[in-house]
User: Fold these one by one.
Assistant:
Number 1:
Amino acid sequence: RSKCQTVWMASSCACPKSKGARWRQKILRHAGFSLFQPAPARQKGAKLDRYGKAGPLQKTVVNSWNEWDPLKHVIVGRADDGHIPPQEPALDAKVPEDSDMRGQWGRRPQETIDRANELLDNFAALLEKRGVRVDRPTCIDHAKPATTPDFHTDSQFGCMPPRDVLLTVGSEILEATMSYRCRWFEYLNYRPLMQQYWNEDPKFRHEAAPKPRLTDADYHPDYLSDKIGVEKRLQWAAEKFFVTTEEEPLFDAADVLRFGRDLVVQHGFTTNLKGIEWIRRHFPDHRVHAVNFPGDPYPIHIDATFTPLRPGLILNNPQRRLPEDQRKMFHDNDWEIVDAAQPAHNSPPPLCYSSTWLSMNVLVLDPKTVCVEASEVYQMEQMDKLGMEVVPVELRDAYAFGGGLHCCTADVFREGSCEDFFPNL
Ligand code: DAV
């Protein structure tokens, strides 16, 4: 392999010729490559995709059983064509009355898309540098409406958070039902990758949960009211009265945490009891545990609330504590649940759906190493005290596109197999 070829590979996307060598050098630095350290060899016959990235760098094996085993292959989302979707029942309930997103929808400003993509690309390059294979989605046209015989909504959402859509359990990747109309077709962003994995890994199980109808019967109309207020919402959350009804199974993949043969699933806005029951019947060899966190007035996804770091240790959002009666399985099996550190910010960035608790939305690379958002100084400090090596990753300007470091990734391969971390159940 000549140096020349290395440079070509790393700079193969359409580059303005005039900027020449300096631009290439910048790209090389940016991507963590150096002229003296050739890029990993591209497999013979691998094609460049439409983003100019080379194809498979290593054999594809889909395998991931938990949130902490050494990560070797991951999908990192893109901010491309990110949209603020129009009003719809399940989404409305998540947007607080005083949010800057109330009443506006459409494609997000290009400069915010570019900035978010810069951060996501940097994150992908950092993971690659640490030996993790990174794949990226192929963005569909999110400006297109989502229309089925049962509903119509004027735009879609985006493909920044693969974690919301794809649930990897062992050799299976399961496309969640999703619970927002604007996210009904989101799996299409990942279909080229699913096809590729299916072609390359004879043991890969590509599954899709039954697509829900998402008629008005799926949502409680009272949740639409602007006058509800946080107190009432907290009371409803405690009573497990959420925006979604029990009309049909609904779940987002980001409501599920994987602990080997146990799956812990949040019952909330985006996942209903029938969705949890569907997961239970779908994974008959697993034990599936429903949890809920009454302190959260907008319970959407478990990954800014409950964060396992390694066997025996979980961070819990101190404003959304796991109720006492649901702690037994953890206590009986020597799992420690500690309060997460406070977020470093008082408010989320502009046009963001998520709360400031994306501070604890971390990506564990192995039981001793964790990626934490670089501005979250308290969370980094706590990880350090808990004995983790902290890898700071700048991502805050991408939060608005669908979340933090856990959200914007989906596991393809972690070392290890299915273990029982709860022998005393
Ligand atoms: O706290 O707003 C964000 C989770 C995104 N997957 C929150 C939850």
Number 2:
Amino acid sequence: MVAVVAEVEVTREGAVLTITLNRPEVLNALNKAVHEGIYAALEQARDPSVRAVVITGAGRGFCVGQDLQEFSSGPGAIVDNLRDNYHRNVLAIRALEKPVIAAVNGPAAGAGMSLAFACDVRIASEAASFVPAFVNIGLVPDSGGTWLVRRVLGTARAFEWLSTGRRLPAEEARQWGVVSEVVPADELAARALEVAQLFAAMPTRAIWETKRLLDAAETSTLEEQLELEAATQADLTRTDDFREGVAAFLEKREPAFTGAVLERPHPIHLVVTDDLRRWRLTVAVRLLLAYPHLLVLTAWTLLALPVAIVHWFITLARGRPSAGVHAWTARFVRYQAHVNAYIFLVADPYPPFRGWAGRYPIDLAIAPPAPQERWKTALRILLAIPAYVFATVLAYVLYIVAFLGAFYAVATARYPRGFRDLSAYCLRYQAQTYGYLFLLTDRYPTLAQPA
Ligand code: LHQ
């Protein structure tokens, strides 16, 4: 057993990592130490040898949300607290490339309820209950509560429940589909481990992609989702687990999945889910339409440059980028890719303004922050020069392809696949170059085109 910090314990059983919130005297109410402990444990869970995660609580509570004895109530302080602690962990669970199972052993209240809903599967003990306690103290559900609960219950039931703050007992939660099963209290830990082990023996990458696709489905159109599924399927056919699954089926034996991760050639990966359809009118006046985006992009770039300079010192000193700045810069680089994709006709819909992932047919998958070699950070600008020059050449390619492609698109309302793929190649290389320059990764942009 390895204690990350006293308030959160981490144990390991084969490929299953269990995170236990450990402030039983207050039903595992959340304070800074618990948030930090959960975050550290989720970092540990990213190890590829971990293939399923269980989150549970010590004592008779799962987690009762914010410790109401220990928090500052100024509006600014609450927003900072939510962003720095709650959002970070909810997003880390959603971004964790493996299933997360909440073993709900007792009351899950307030943000503790949101935490349970952020997990992929919930198993409850007979002593469990779900309490949307926010409204009882005059607040709204936070930490993703509205989003996460609505997608399990639907808006009508979510509204009714969240706005009464009613305690939902385990059995009723099972009937509502909040938990998949209810077991006697003394059997919960063993059952959660058993379920986690079943998941851990599955093809982990496919499980992760299912989780990611279901999250994306919350905001995608059917067309976008079809393309996203197709692109993911193409990726998965390159995994050992796919080959093993097919071989085991043909040989009429049980498959032995390893959960091996798919190594991408670069931490910044362009995801193309564009369907080649183009709206003639917007193609013809695209530059004009893109004008607001160009203004935002210019302003964002002016802000990103000083941020990058400060971040350079941080990355040099710590040997790894700051998670917060990395996330912000990732949105900036992604936004740039979205806008360029729109301008150069690589995608058709009007881009969103904020650079969030999973919302545009030309998207960037950017790996979380990783340690960076200090000498590469120190010399970053010099090292980036050749890539930057090549990226500039590719900008001309983008101009020429878009110019020619525009005629085709206006005539046929479609875009030639070859043009789209060539432009996507250019955008990918450019995004990797900006990502390298802006310290998202210390991996050099690659010429290799992923299959
Ligand atoms: C607690 C707590 C607690 C401290 C039980 N804190 N001690 C984010 C950012 C910033 C601001 C605000 O909010 C947020 C997000 C949120 O999470 S807001 C929601 C905060 N949570 C709540 O309002 C839940 C409050 N707790 C309850 O309603 C009950 O404890 C439930 C219904 C969960 C469980 O009831 P019981 O099973 O009857 O247990 P209990 O009430 O007797 O609690 C046991 C102990 O735990 C007790 O201490 P004591 O010294 O008297 O034994 C409670 O004071 C303590 N405790 N929740 N959030």
